[in-house]
Amino acid sequence: MPYSHPQPLDRAQAYRRIRHLFPGALLFSATAGFVNSTALGFFHTPVSHMTGAVSRLGIDLHAGKWADATASLGIILGFLTGAMVAGVLVGAWKLIPGRRYGVALMVQGALLSLSTGLLMTGHRLGLPAVAMACGLQNAMTSSYCGLMIRTTHVSGMITDIGVMLGHWIRHRQIEFWKLRFLAWLFTAFGVGGWVGVIADDRFGPAALGVPAAGCTLAGAIFWFVTHRGLVDLMQDAGPQPPNIGSLPDR
């Protein structure tokens, strides 16, 4: 992300912290793959990454397909708006999970629910909504352990994997945990896309209700857990003695 800065961590810290991030990153990537495949079943422009959307916009403009061009432009603006919403809600320079991430997840679930209803009625306004959900998700993650975490597209992942493999071929030292992490994210996105195609063939746009419910539930649980953790910490601390030079024994 352009507003992110890698967090300097030594090898021990990286291994200890990345294991907590790994399951959520996999679920994010699989969700994006699922959503993108389902949306592609409705319209011919991807919603989880903007390279294809911008190219499609140019093609539609050249062909004079104004309705399709408007839909493609709506997808681009929706993705941009979703990233802006994440900047407002989360506003972090680095990945520090807190209650705001739970709120952002619930907003993503609401956007997916809105897009589900619109697309089920054949309304193209559902496309900017689902793109906004993808933009929000992609902007929620940040630089972590010196690694750019992208969960809604795989171009950057493949680029980073290729660079690492090139360094390895030249007998340069690489961090294999990063390579495995990116490979798993790539796989999760592909599996999510495959499942999304199957779901779209059977249920159509209604399949988006699954990630909508999942994001909403996960966001509510995450918000509750982090909120209770903060409250319990404050309750445990209680009134502090006037001697601020000493810390309570924890």
- Strand segment tally: 2
Using the coordinates above, name the CATH class.
Mainly Alpha
Radius of gyration based on Cα positions:
20 Å
Which shape, going by the Cα principal axes? globular
The domain count comes to 1
User: How widely separated are the two ends?
Assistant: 37 Å
Number of helices: 8
Report on this model:
With 250 residues, the protein is an all-alpha fold. Residues 1-10 and 231-250 have low confidence and may be disordered. It is built from eight helices and two strands. Strands 1-2 form a two-stranded antiparallel ribbon. It has one domain (11-226): Growth Hormone, Chain: A. It is globular. Helix 6 runs antiparallel to helix 7 (176-203). Strand 1 (143-144) and strand 2 (147-148) form a beta hairpin. Helix content is 71%, strand content 2%.
Question: How do you describe this structure in short?
Answer:
The chain has 250 residues and is mostly helical. The protein has eight helices and two strands. It has a two-stranded antiparallel sheet.
